[in-house]
């Protein structure tokens, strides 16, 4: 459902929990001067906060991922040993899941939205955490969000009306969009396309308003939800128009050519995301790491990736699978380290960037959707620990991240509160 209209007396101070309610989420108000005394002086520094998520559709071998013990004195697992240089910069979380989500690989559609499955197998219309942040906080940058993939267009990013946001898997296209100035002809063509899109939206909206007068209350509610989606799209188009003539930032990275394989593609996507954050071209990004169903070009791999996940406890399959997953952990570690070394306007970029590595599967061999592997780095949280939960809503972590990033909401998806044991610095 779209947000209800709420009216305030601006002669009084607004409470920090004043919210606009939406379908499955609470929509935050923009910054208002009436809130100044409520939020306190620390909020006025306006530190840009960011969110990045790495989605790993084939999960990780649980025994190689999860550590022994909990708290700050945990014993690192095989994979976490690869992250020992940045141990104090991340938290490993176990025991989480999405209530009401099932379906093995199909659960990827709910990874970032926590939307439960309905009887017919589809998910409810609930926005993903990255798109919620982008819709509320993304208007200050050229791109409200980046949705990327190492292979194909599948993503876990979902709009407010439940539609998947297609991922971009061409590194050269992303580089051109972010860092190569358009020619006058390209700018003119983009403006014409945006104007056409606006005119189409206007016509559709007028037709829908005429239809609304003939509908019952239930159908009108459905149509109002549609109008809300249209308004969100109109805002995106307006934001794109304001950036058409603006010069793009210059970077030292060379334009990517067609990459030779999955691992190099993954690393290139990480470099592009870091540069996008560093140049403030966007503040919200999601990358699906899925390497397809072929044989990855990793050293020592001779079997299809998906086949390896159904290893049957075969020693050679487990060995090859561990090689792939170790490289994923190493690349993620390098990305986190690069954010730590990159200085933003308010200190290391990592301190203002909540960076997630997670999967929709707890065990790919059995398609289990319980005990999901989760790593959280940066974002201004206290790290260096293992938070061990038991059948705990992963959406609680999303709520903590949303609040830390700047949304004043008190629920998200299936959350029951913020993440226990995760505290801000």
Characterise the protein shown here.
This protein has 425 residues and is an alpha/beta fold. Helices cover 34% and strands 13% of the residues.
Quick synopsis:
This protein is of the alpha/beta class and 425 residues long. Helices cover 34% and strands 13% of the residues.
Order of helices and strands: EEHEHHEHEHHHHEHHEEEEEH
Helix content: 25-40%
The end-to-end distance, rounded to whole angstroms, is 35 Å
Computed Rg: 22 Å
Write down how many β-strands occur, each being a DSSP E stretch of 2 or more residues: 11
Give the DSSP E fraction (strand runs of 2 or more residues): 5-15%
- What does the largest sheet look like? 7 strands, mixed
Class from secondary-structure proportions? alpha/beta
User: Low-confidence spans: pLDDT under 50, at least 5 residues?
Assistant: 1-44
Shape: globular
> Count of helical segments?
11
Overall pLDDT confidence: 83
Strand order of the largest sheet: 5-6-3-9-10-4-11
């Amino acid at each position: 459902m779209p947000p209800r209209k709420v009216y305030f007396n601006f002669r009084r101070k607004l409470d920090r929990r004043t919210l606009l309610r939406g379908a499955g989420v609470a929509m935050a108000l923009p910054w208002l001067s009436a809130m100044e005394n409520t939020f306190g002086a620390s909020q006025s520094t306006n530190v840009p906060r960011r969110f990045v998520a790495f989605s790993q559709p084939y999960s990780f071998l649980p025994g190689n991922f999860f550590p022994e013990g909990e708290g700050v004195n945990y014993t690192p697992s095989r994979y976490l040993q690869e992250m020992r240089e940045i141990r104090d910069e991340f938290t490993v979380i176990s025991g989480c899941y999405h209530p009401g989500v099932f379906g093995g690989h199909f659960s990827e559609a709910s990874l970032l939205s926590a939307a439960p499955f309905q009887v017919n197998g589809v998910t409810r219309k609930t926005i993903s955490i990255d798109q919620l942040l982008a819709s509320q906080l993304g208007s200050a940058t050229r791109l409200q969000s980046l949705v990327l993939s190492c292979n194909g267009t599948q993503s876990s990013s979902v709009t407010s009306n439940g539609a998947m946001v297609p991922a971009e898997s061409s590194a050269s296209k992303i580089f051109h969009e972010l860092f190569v100035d358009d020619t006058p002809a390209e700018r003119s063509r983009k403006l014409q396309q945006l104007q056409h899109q606006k005119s189409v939206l206007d016509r559709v909206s007028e037709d829908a308003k005429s239809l609304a007068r003939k509908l019952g209350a239930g159908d009108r509610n459905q149509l109002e939800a549609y109008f809300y989606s249209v308004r969100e799209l109109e805002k995106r188009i307006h934001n794109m128009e304001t950036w058409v003539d603006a010069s793009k930032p210059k970077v030292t990275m060379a334009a990517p050519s067609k990459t030779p394989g999955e691992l190099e593609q993954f690393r290139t996507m990480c470099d592009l995301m870091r540069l996008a954050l560093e140049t403030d071209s966007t503040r919200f990004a999601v990358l699906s790491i899925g390497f397809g169903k072929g044989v990855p070009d990793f050293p020592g791999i001779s079997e299809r990736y998906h086949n390896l996940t159904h290893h049957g406890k075969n020693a050679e399959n487990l060995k090859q699978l561990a090689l792939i997953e170790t490289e994923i952990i190493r690349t993620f570690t390098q990305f986190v380290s690069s954010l730590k070394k990159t200085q933003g306007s308010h200190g290391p970029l990592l301190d203002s960037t909540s960076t997630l590595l997670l999967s929709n599967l707890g065990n790919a061999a059995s398609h289990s959707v319980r005990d999901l592997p989760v790593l959280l780095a940066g974002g201004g949280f206290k790290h260096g620990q293992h938070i061990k939960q038991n059948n705990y809503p992963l959406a609680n972590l999303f709520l903590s991240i949303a609040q830390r990033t700047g949304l004043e909401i008190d629920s998200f998806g299936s959350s029951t509160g913020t993440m226990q044991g995760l505290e801000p610095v």
